[in-house]
Amino acid sequence: MTLLLKTDGITMKFGGLTAVKDLNLEINQGEIVALIGPNGAGKTTAFNMITGVYKPTEGKIHFSKKDITGLKPHLITKHGMARTFQNIRLFKELSVMDNVLIANHLHLKASYLESILHLPRYRQQKNASVKKSEFLLERLGLSQFKDEKASSLPYGLQRRLEIARALATDPKLLLLDEPAAGMNPKETDDLTHFIKEIRDEFQLTILLIEHHMSVVMGISDRIYVLDHGITIAVGNPQSIQNDQKVIEAYLGVSEDA
Ligand SMILES: Nc1ncnc2c1ncn2[C@@H]1O[C@H](COP(=O)(O)OP(=O)(O)OP(=O)(O)O)[C@@H](O)[C@H]1O
């Protein structure tokens, strides 16, 4: 097995609050790994450290054997990491197709001068980019909406479009922040199959944050459980479901709620 992502004791402090403490994730190529935990456990903060939004207060992050600690998000994307957000971030006024084209643009190698002069290399890349975007939309079941405004899509399809945008940057590792949020049971079930399909088809490794336990238990090879920033359990779905500390962390939350 090839190790793709490794975090060595990453910690994030906001003033006096330690949002994540000493997190040690190890994700192998091809795995689907979930990060779960009650609200405020530190899951999004962990994503933000891995993707370069925050520089960890302590610790190191290695991705594809390179130290990426403290690199800016766009450079981390170039190394092969892409993410979606808890709150969908699309260019709402642009078409579905343009949303994917813009994401793909990051990968075009033609220079600015070549692009304004419409030189051959730019034209070739643009054509390839359109083909690739069409392929992604086709593959994600969005072709029929390609000329629609992104904001006109139903919620579940907007989430798919976010994933299409992430895939347009050719990631090795895809981070999904609550992909099933706001979905009904049928959409949630479809999403579970869909995530496995894209993992296989695009040879992805996936790290996801998710509150829907049916999704987490249905697709994860391994699960990390955070509570108040601390990793309280790591294991396969079965061991996590039976872990006393995990049960208590979740029961504690429902009692408080
Ligand atoms: N930029 C920030 N500044 C200060 N505190 C923050 C910041 N970001 C997160 N926190 C705090 O860090 C803790 C962890 O938050 P985080 O959003 O990572 O949790 P989470 O597990 O993703 O929660 P949820 O499931 O509700 O999204 C919380 O107490 C939160 O208030």
Automatic annotation (TrEMBL):
One of its GO terms (biological process) is L-valine import across plasma membrane. Transmembrane segments: none annotated. Keywords: ATP-binding, Nucleotide-binding, Transport. Residues 5-253 form the ABC transporter domain. It holds the Pfam family ABC_tran. This is ABC transporter ATP-binding protein. GO terms for molecular function: ATP binding; ATP hydrolysis activity; L-isoleucine transmembrane transporter activity; L-phenylalanine transmembrane transporter activity; L-valine transmembrane transporter activity. Signal peptide: none annotated.
